[in-house]
Amino acid sequence: MGYLIVAVVIIIVGALLVLNYYPPLGGKSSKESWQRIKASPNFVDGKFRNQIPTSMDLSVKDTVKLLGKQIKGHPQARPQSQIPIDPFDSKLFTENSADQIIWFGHSTLLVKVNEVKILIDPVFSKYASPVPKFGPKRYSKNLPAEVEDLPKIDAVIISHDHYDHLDYKTIRKLRGKVDKFIVPLGVAGHLVRWGVKPENIVELDWWDEVNYQGLTIASTPARHFSGRSLGRGGTTLWSSWVIVSEKAKIYFNGDSGYGPHFKEIGNKYGPFDVTLMESGQYNENWSGIHMMPEETVQANADVQGKLMIPIHWGAFTLALHSWTDPIERVTKAAHELGTEISTPRIGETFIVGAKEYPTSSWWK
After folding, report:
1. How far is 23 from 27, CA to CA, in rounded Å?
2. Metallo-beta-lactamase domain spans which residues (predicted)?
3. For the segment 61-72, what is each residue's pLDDT rounded down to a tens digit?
4. Per DSSP, which regions of the chain are E strands?
C-alpha cells in the first residue's frame, strides 16, 4: 500500500510539473491583462463565453460511438499520395504590389494588404500537438516555405490558442522577425512565456479595433472555445478577424460554429472582397463549435462575402470524415447557392480583386 501511495504522489507531482513548466502548454496572463479579461463582458464566472449557449457535452452513447469510430478510423482520413505544394517565392511576393493571399494548409495564411505583410494562425510544425511526433501529423512532407524563408512579417494574427492554430515552435522561430502580434484577450500570456516582448503584443476583445500601418484590424466574435491544458479552458478568448484597407476588406473566421455573429459582422464591416472560411474538422456531435460545410457557405452569405476561400482542411486530420469531404461538400453547396469560391493549391498565390482566381479541383 505504501508503494502505491508513493507512486500516486509521484504521478500527481509529475503532472503538476508538466502543467506548470512544460513551455508548449503556454503561460498565464499578466496582472494588467487579467484586469482587462475580468472587465470583458464576454468573461462570465471565470471563463469566456459564447454569445449563445454552446454545449460540448456528449451523451455516454454518443461518446462510445465516437470512440469506436476513432479506433476504427476512416480509410481516406489522409491522402494516399503526396498533395501538390507550390513553392513560395519570397522575392516575387515582396515585389508584387498587389494584395495577395497564400494558403499554407489548414488555417495558416500569408496575406499582403496595402503592402502590409500579415501571417495568420502560423503553424509550421509537422504535428498539431504539444508533444513532438504525437498527435495529428501534417499530410505533406514539406510546406511552401519554412519560417526562415519568409520575409520580415509586419503582423501575426492569432484566432485562438488551440494547437492547430497557435504553435510553440513556430512562434519561437517567428518572434525575432515580427513587428506586432495581434491576439485575443489572454493569448499574450502564451507568447510572453515563449519569448515575445510584451510591447510587441496587442490584445483585443470582441469588437475592439487597432489601426496598424494604415489598416484597420478588428477582433470579431466566433463561436468556439479555448485552452491548451487541463484547468485552463476558457481563460483565453477566441476570435474571428476583419482586415480593412482603403481598397480591400478581408474576413477570417477562425474556428466557429454557425451563429448570429456572422450577420452582425457583415452588417458592421461587410461586404467583404474575400472571406477565409473554416470548412473542415466537423461532426454533427460538435457542430456548435465547428460549422458543417453547408453552414460555411451560409455564413459567408451572412457576412456578405463576395468570394470565399475554404480553409481548415488539407493539412491535418482532426475529425472522422475523409480528408477531401470538406472541400467536396463546401464546393457543392457553394455552386448550389451561386457563391463564388476559390480553391487554391497550398502555396498558390491568390490575387485579391483579380478577375481570374484559382478554381482547380487539385485534390482529385
Report:
1. 8
2. 118-313
3. 777 777 777 777
4. 43-44, 47-48, 100-103, 109-113, 116-120, 153-157, 178-184, 201-204, 209-212, 215-220, 240-244, 249-252, 274-278, 307-311, 340-341, 349-351
Burial of 64 (0-12, 13-18, 19+ CB in 10 A): exposed
Q: Find residue 110's DSSP bridge partners.
A: 102, 119
Dihedral over Cα of 206, 103, 293, 227: its sign:
negative
Residues with Cβ within 8 Å of 117's Cβ and at least 6 positions away in sequence, in order, are 94, 110, 111, 151, 152, 153, 154, 155
Q: Catalogue all structural domains in the chain, each as residue range(s) with its CATH number.
A: 2-351 (3.60.15.10)
Give buried/exposed letters for 10-21 (b at 16+ CB in 10 A, else e). Answer: eeeeeeeeeeee
The C-alpha cell at 167 is: 504553435
Give Cα separations from 7 to 1, 22, 195, 266 (angstroms): 10, 21, 35, 56
**Cα 318 to Cα 337: distance, rounded to the nearest angstrom:** 27
What local confidence, expressed as pLDDT, does residue 21 receive?
Answer: 66
Which cell numbers hold the place of 91?
Answer: 522575392
What are the φ and ψ backbone dihedral angles of 218, each rounded to 5 degrees?
A: -120, 135
Burial class (CB in 10 A: 0-12, 13-18, 19+), 179: middle
Q: Give whole-number Cα distances, 292 to 232, 257, 283, in Å.
A: 27, 8, 7
Nearest C-alpha neighbor of 279 from the set 288, 266, 292, 260: 292
CA distances from 335 to 89, 266, 345, 355, 356 (A): 32, 21, 19, 18, 17
Please give the average per-residue pLDDT across 258-283, as a whole number: 98
Burial category of 243 from C-beta neighbours within 10 Å (exposed 0-12, middle 13-18, buried 19 and up): buried
Classify each residue of 181-211 as buried b or exposed e, where b means 16 or more C-beta atoms within 10 Å of its C-beta.
Answer: bbbbbbbbbbbbbbebeeebbbbbbbebeee
Predicted local distance difference test score (pLDDT) of residue 312: 98
Neighbours of 44 (CB within 10 A): 10
Read off the pTM. 0.94
Look at residue 4 in the predicted model and tell me its pLDDT. 47
